[in-house]
Amino acid sequence: MDTIKTKTKKFWQLFIKQQMELQEALKDQQQAKIMELVRILNDELLSTAGCFLEVEGNGEDFYECTFLSGDDKSSQLICAYIKKFAPERVLNHWIINDCQQPLSEKGFQTRFDVRDVSYGVEDIQICMHVLEDAQMVDLDVYCAAFEWQDEKEKQTITALLLEMMIGTLQMEAHINSFTCVDQQDAKEEWFALADLYERLLDLIETKKWPDFKDPTQIYRAYKLDKEEINDSVHHDKLLITTCHPELFVEIMNEQRLILDNFNRLGGEYGTLVYEHEGVSENLAHNKKQLERELNELLYSLGLARCIGGALGTHYCYIDVAVFDRQDFKQALVKINEKLPVQLNYFPY
Fold first, then answer.
1. How confident is the model at residue 145 (pLDDT cuts 50, 70, 90)?
2. How far, in Å, are 6, 63, 82, 211 from residue 11 at the CA level?
3. Backbone dihedral region of 333: left (phi > 0), alpha (psi from -120 to 50 degrees) or beta?
4. What is the pTM of this model?
């Protein structure tokens, strides 16, 4: 079975093969040709990352390829990996985005019809509520069309347009929730959806909130109740951090949907475990340092990426997304020869 590493190479080989033809089609705005070439690329990307891409460009200033990973964290991780290993001959002509970028032209052009009236981003108003502790915001969203739409329709169109206007990164990093309302509260400050991205950036800068580069850098922390733990390996975890919260929940509930989907794409989620000498002030620091060094090595080789981990009463855990299982296991043997601790790998 192909791995994510080998599939990524195949994807870029196909992209390079079509590159000149796709650039010419974009330059001349040959829509039928663009659609055909993108369809071929999408077939390949779907089997590699479980998502689609879109392209744009005019032949003068830029060509741009965006992977539409959405909120699927596994797709986000793979798309970030594909972008990391984009060949130089592609990067010389193309901007590669691993997720939806803000202020999308497609977002400005998107329309939806309700009762024979057409609506777009210019018809949507936003009210922002700051959550200081969470470093996020809640949004009230108003559109005249909401009066005649059911809740699912409102939610779907709002989520779509929000992501197109502020991008996947800010959507995930700083939007806690949004509520579609049928009336505007006159006491609140309202502004156009098209202005939300700039408003968010200003707020992040003013509040000195973290500045993330891509959605896979956003981590969540969890603390388990002492009643849930014991001294055995995998069951002694006290504090857990992860950039893939849904995976953490799935593992805790002994389910396999995300795990099996990642396996089908050619990857594997697992954890590196080593025994520590007891909880101390230096334990978290030393684990973080080891995690950083492992990630730099394994990710540069295209074998795996660290996605979080845990501190336990007896063991430390470093969770990994593995992109080539066989090469990863071979590399681990060599890594263990040089480490003061012994890393044992357990696939989830």
1. very high
2. 9, 18, 9, 30
3. alpha
4. 0.94
